[in-house]
TrEMBL record:
Protein name, per record: HD domain-containing protein
Top-rank taxon, per record: Bacteria
Organism in which the protein naturally occurs: Vibrio ostreae
UniProt-listed Gene3D superfamilies: 3.30.450.40, Hypothetical protein af1432 (1.10.3210.10)
Pfam families recorded: HD_5
Length: 381
């Protein structure tokens, strides 16, 4: 990805809110001209799993269909649209769709009669679908699409802009890691595990902490950047096979504040976009070593002063450290690692809901560890 200058398209974001809020604002304006349009939503495409995932919605109705994903290959008409770039119309949903899947059942139950699906792209890369729904039959067609074009183009722009911002931040972090391979010899596996652990936790605690799909995806993606400050720590310290001396421990602990500096530099180079996802990235990097009782570092925050994004990454990171091989220790089993986390809950360090979330998904956690293994230090001897 090209390096973005301070005059890049990211300067769009100083007044932008979350995609949910932006869709709600556009929907409100659109209903002045088209009052029969009852919902606008965006479903994100995950190329790794070939799934469409709920992401953002203009109405509270959409919150009933949250944290949901479905294989694109199982949706032939949408699959074809993703390839052709053409829109898809359904003008009698109850007669055309059967309540076979949760998403079709939900559409029918909500009283929607018509739907238009518009594929969205970042460059030539398919990233998901914009959906418009109406409770009127036979509402969408090519003529209607033409009248809606200005609004659709705005929605395409904000969807693509947010996607670009998130992935530009991730790419910048990846580029910095790639420039110092001695620091992160197994970082890919670590990042993938952390991302999946964080998503499991975020999904489980979403009802408790009011997390929508946009926030869950943001936390999952930016979890991969939590340790970027370790680029400032000598590789000899990171890879040391025995206990660290005080000076080395201090160097290691300094990685949080160094990480904040690195992230701030990346953000500044991108034109300082003031988008909510940027705040989540900063929270994760700055606070993922804080504990609820104030014994964490570097800021000694307590309780609600620690954002939920950082609480989630803290639990995911400790769990990963316990269940991974390191030069100085063998990996723990999932049950033993969870027991250790529960001890940390009891003494007031970790969020109990985040730890409980992992306990509820032990089989999945084991599969993630198997899919993205850390090399055993014994194998290197």
């Amino acid at each position: 990805m090209e390096t973005h200058s301070k005059t890049s398209e990211h300067s769009y974001f100083p007044t932008a809110g979350t995609l949910n809020n932006q869709l709600a604002d556009i929907h409100q304006r659109l209903r002045v001209a088209e009052p029969e349009i009852d919902r606008i939503s965006f479903a994100l495409y995950d190329a790794d799993s070939d799934h469409l995932k709920t992401y953002a919605d203009s109405t509270f109705h959409g919150f009933e269909l949250m944290h949901y994903e479905f294989p694109l290959d199982a949706l032939p008409s949408l699959k074809q649209c993703s390839l052709s770039g053409e829109s898809r119309y359904i003008n009698d949903i109850p007669q055309t769709l059967t309540p076979r899947y949760p998403h079709t059942k939900w559409l029918i139950e909500q009283g929607f009669q018509s739907s238009m699906a518009v594929p969205a792209y970042h460059g030539e890369h398919f990233i998901g679908f914009i959906f418009l729904n109406s409770c009127q039959k036979d509402y969408f067609n090519e003529v209607r699409k033409a009248s809606l074009k200005p609004y659709i183009e705005i929605i395409r722009f904000i969807v693509s802009s947010e996607y670009d911002l998130v992935h530009a931040l991730l790419q910048s972090a990846n580029d910095m890691n790639a420039s110092s391979p001695e620091h992160f010899q197994e970082s890919h596996e670590h990042k993938e595990r952390i991302s999946r652990f964080a998503k499991v936790i975020a999904l489980e605690v979403a009802p408790i902490y009011d997390l929508d799909d946009e926030m869950i995806e943001t936390i999952s993606q930016f979890s991969k950047c939590h340790d970027i400050g370790k680029l400032s720590v000598p590789a000899s310290v990171l890879n040391k096979s025995n206990s660290l001396v005080d000076e080395e421990r201090e160097q290691l602990n300094d990685h949080v504040e160094k990480g904040v500096e690195i992230i701030n530099h990346i953000i500044e180079d991108m034109g300082a976009p003031n988008h909510p996802c940027v705040s989540v990235l900063k929270e994760i990097v700055a606070y993922h070593h804080e504990f609820l009782d104030g014994s964490g570092y570097p800021y000694g925050l307590t309780q609600d002063d620690i954002p939920i994004s950082a609480r989630i990454i803290s639990v995911a990171n400790i769990f990963d450290a316990l269940t991974s091989h390191h030069p100085y220790k063998q990996a723990w089993s999932v049950p033993f690692a969870l027991l250790e986390l529960e001890k940390m809950v009891v003494v007031g360090k970790l969020d109990k809901h985040c730890v409980n979330a992992l306990r509820s998904h032990q089989d999945y956690l084991k599969k993630v560890i198997e899919a993205y293994p850390e090399p055993d230090p014994i194998d290197k001897l």
